[in-house]
């Protein structure tokens, strides 16, 4: 349903919710490696269901936090933060604000949604209720690009950015 060639996917990664004290970036390295190899990356987004707060866990109380589901917006914001952080460290990330991504919500359900565009647009797109996934594209075939245009958030910015990594 998301118009990319399945055989062109690399390693799948999970993007986890960050906390104030824990902001892992290891998944970003895998996305970059896939992209360097021309492969797309399916990013599975974090879900927190039946999780206890640290306080409740320490006190042995069976009180659970409300469920949380990471959205495409949140995942894109974390990726953008990592890109900015790595630039400040003097690196030149393989993935930029203009890397074409695909946001997916409720795949297979009657109300599924798909949106495509540069990463910076994925931080503002609204795909509704969970579950969400994000795809960071690698090298794209011209037919993949044509199909992604059907789901573009803003066709003008898609046109300006999409052709930087095609073959």
Automatic annotation (TrEMBL):
Secretion signal, residue range per the UniProt entry: none
GO aspect biological process, one term: protein histidyl modification to diphthamide
Gene Ontology molecular-function annotations: methyltransferase activity
Tell me the domain of life.
Eukaryota
InterPro entries, A to Z: 4pyrrol_Methylase_sf, 4pyrrole_Mease_sub2, Dphthn_synthase
Q: Which PANTHER family match?
A: DIPHTHINE METHYL ESTER SYNTHASE (PTHR10882:SF0), DIPHTHINE SYNTHASE (PTHR10882)
Q: What is the protein name given in its UniProt record?
A: DPH5 synthase
Species, as recorded: Fregata magnificens
Recorded name of the encoding gene: Dph5
């Amino acid at each position: 349903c998301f118009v990319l060639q399945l055989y062109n996917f690399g390693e799948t990664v999970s993007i986890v919710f960050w906390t104030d004290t824990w902001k892992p970036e290891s998944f970003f390295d895998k996305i970059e490696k896939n992209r360097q190899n021309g492969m797309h990356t399916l990013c599975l987004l974090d879900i927190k269901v039946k999780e206890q707060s640290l306080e409740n866990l320490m006190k042995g109380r069976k009180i659970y936090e409300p469920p949380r589901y990471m959205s495409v917006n949140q995942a894109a914001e974390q990726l953008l933060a990592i890109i900015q952080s790595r630039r400040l460290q003097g690196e030149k990330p393989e993935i930029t604000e203009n890397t074409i991504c695909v946001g997916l919500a409720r795949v297979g359900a009657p109300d599924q949604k798909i949106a495509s565009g540069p990463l910076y647009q994925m931080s503002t797109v609204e795909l509704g209720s969970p579950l969400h996934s994000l795809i960071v594209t690698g090298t794209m075939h011209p037919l993949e690009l044509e199909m992604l245009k059907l789901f573009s958030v803003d066709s003008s910015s898609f046109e300006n950015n999409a052709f930087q990594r095609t073959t």
